[in-house]
């Protein structure tokens, strides 16, 4: 995928540096979530020099700006995913093949109401991620279990 991210970076107040563009291109070319180390390897493949701390810092800046989604994996590692869906949604993450799918449903209204009524509190933000096995990986598990 050859997407020009310059406008999105400009909107976030970030410079479109060659390193940032290389990071975004590496993630744009992947249909699965990647670790910082995997992004670093892809950036180095593209002949871009960058240290791992620089990759981490840029990934965090891009995630804070909403350009990247963070995936919190059960292995306690942090991964990153470039989601093309810019509307409000959540993710279903396959922990076997690392595929990410959009979930269009959000239960925030019901949860906010419960928090307001039960705790007299107010929700300011939320993060919701569902982990499991995708259809293909479920099928592989069924075959393996036979």
Task: Describe this protein's structure.
There is one protein chain. By secondary structure, this protein is of the alpha+beta class. The protein has two domains: 1-84, Arc Repressor Mutant, subunit A (Orthogonal Bundle); 86-146, Ferric-uptake regulator, C-terminal dimerisarion domain (Dna Ligase, domain 1, 2-Layer Sandwich), CATH 3.30.1490. Helix content is 43%, strand content 16%. It contains six helices and six strands, in the order ααβααββββαβα. A three-stranded antiparallel β-sheet has the order 1-3-2. Strand 2 (69-72) and strand 3 (78-81) form a beta hairpin. Helix 2 crosses helix 3 (36-45) and helix 3 (36-45) crosses helix 4 (52-64). It starts with 5 loop residues before the first helix and ends with a helix.
Write a short abstract of this structure:
By secondary structure, the protein is an alpha+beta fold. The chain has 6 helices and 6 strands, in the order ααβααββββαβα. It folds into 2 domains: 84 residues, Winged helix-like DNA-binding domain superfamily/Winged helix DNA-binding domain (Arc Repressor Mutant, subunit A); 61 residues, Ferric-uptake regulator, C-terminal dimerisarion domain (Dna Ligase, domain 1, 2-Layer Sandwich), CATH 3.30.1490.190.
**Full CATH superfamily name of the largest domain:** Winged helix-like DNA-binding domain superfamily/Winged helix DNA-binding domain
CATH architecture of the largest domain: Orthogonal Bundle
What is the SS-derived class? alpha+beta
Strand order across the largest sheet: 1-3-2
Roughly what percent helix? 40-55%
What's the count of strands? 6
Largest sheet data: 3 strands, antiparallel
Q: What is the strand content?
A: 15-25%
Question: According to CATH, what is the topology of the largest domain?
Answer: Arc Repressor Mutant, subunit A
Rg, rounded, reads 18 Å
Contiguous runs where pLDDT drops below 50 for at least 5 residues: none
